[in-house]
C-alpha cells in the first residue's frame, strides 16, 4: 500500500515491516500512540535531552505540537514503531545481565521519521528515533533498516532509488553518532553553530554569543551538528549486506 499522506515521496508501507515490527503513520492512531509516547517519556525524561522540542505536559500538548509542525508538512513524515508479538531481549549496559520481556502484538515501541529534501535531490534525512523503553534492543536497528532499504534500494527492487540518506545529530550526542556509524553511515564532518537550541535546552554557550535575534526574540544556546551519510555507492558496495547482518543478530 502506497502512502496517500501529504508527504512528497511515495512511501510503500507494505515494505516497512518485517517479522518483528512495522512502521505506520503516526496519525493512523494519533491519540492512543501520543498517550503511550508521553507515558514513556514521563518515565524516561532524558529522551528530550538532545531534541529541539519538548518535553510535553500531556498527550494533548504533544498532539497540538504535531498538528502545528508535522502533520501538514510535505517534507516530514513521523512514523509509529509497532511491535509484533514476540520476545524482547536486552543486555544491561553496565552489568551485562540479559533480560527478556514478552510483548503483545500491536505494542507501541516509539517513533522514527523521515525528512525529505526537495524530491529532485534524491536525498532524505532519518531522524527523531525515540525508543527509550526499548533502548538497547533490536527495535531501533530494525526500524532504521526498513527505512534504509526502502530509500536506497533501486526502483527495480521496489525501493525509491535515492542517492543519499543523511543522519544529523548534536555533535555532543555520542550515542546517536555511534548508532549511525554502526549502520554504516560515514561521518562527513561537524557543522559549527548549525542550529539555535530553544531557551532552556542543553546547548553550547559563549560569553559573546549573540542572544537577541533580528526580530527581537531571545535566542537560546547553539549546537554543532555532526553530519553523517549513507549513499547509494556505500549501499551497493556492502552497506546493504551490513544492515541485513545487523537485523539477523
UniProtKB/TrEMBL annotation:
Matches recorded under InterPro entries: Acyl_CoA_acyltransferase (IPR016181), GNAT_dom (IPR000182), Ribosomal_N-acetyltransferase (IPR051908)
Domain N-acetyltransferase: start-end pairs: 20-186
Family matches, as SUPFAM superfamilies: Acyl-CoA N-acyltransferases (Nat)
A single MF term (Gene Ontology): protein N-terminal-serine acetyltransferase activity
Superkingdom of the organism of origin: Eukaryota
Record-given protein name: GNAT family acetyltransferase
Organism classification: Eukaryota, Fungi, Dikarya, Ascomycota, Pezizomycotina
Amino acid at each position: 500500500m502506497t502512502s496517500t499522506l501529504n508527504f512528497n515521496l511515495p512511501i510503500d508501507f507494505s515494505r516497512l515491516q518485517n517479522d518483528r515490527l512495522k512502521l505506520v503513520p503516526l496519525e493512523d492512531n494519533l491519540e492512543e500512540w501520543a498517550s503511550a509516547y508521553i507515558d514513556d517519556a514521563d518515565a524516561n525524561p532524558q529522551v528530550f535531552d538532545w531534541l529541539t522540542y519538548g518535553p510535553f505536559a500531556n498527550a494533548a500538548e504533544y498532539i497540538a505540537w504535531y498538528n502545528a509542525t508535522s502533520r501538514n508538512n510535505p517534507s516530514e513524515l513521523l512514523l509509529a514503531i509497532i511491535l509484533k508479538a514476540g520476545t524482547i531481549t536486552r543486555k544491561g549496559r553496565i552489568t551485562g545481565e540479559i533480560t527478556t520481556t514478552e510483548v503483545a502484538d500491536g505494542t507501541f515501541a516509539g517513533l522514527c521519521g523521515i525528512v525529505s529534501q526537495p524530491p529532485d535531490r534524491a536525498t532524505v534525512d532519518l531522524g527523531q528515533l525515540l525508543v527509550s523503553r526499548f533502548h538497547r534492543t533490536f527495535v531501533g536497528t530494525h526500524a532504521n533498516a526498513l527505512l534504509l532499504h526502502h530509500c536506497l534500494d533501486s526502483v527495480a527492487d521496489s525501493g525509491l532509488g535515492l542517492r543519499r540518506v543523511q543522519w544529523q545529530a548534536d555533535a555532543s550526542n555520542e550515542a546517536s553518532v555511534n548508532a549511525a556509524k554502526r549502520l554504516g553511515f560515514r561521518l562527513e564532518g561537524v557543522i559549527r553553530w548549525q542550529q539555535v537550541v530553544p531557551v532552556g535546552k542543553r546547548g553550547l554557550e559563549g560569553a559573546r554569543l549573540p542572544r537577541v535575534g533580528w526580530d527581537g526574540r531571545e535566542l537560546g544556546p547553539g549546537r554543532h551538528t555532526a553530519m553523517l551519510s549513507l549513499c547509494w555507492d556505500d549501499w551497493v558496495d556492502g552497506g546493504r549486506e551490513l544492515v541485513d547482518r545487523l537485523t539477523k543478530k
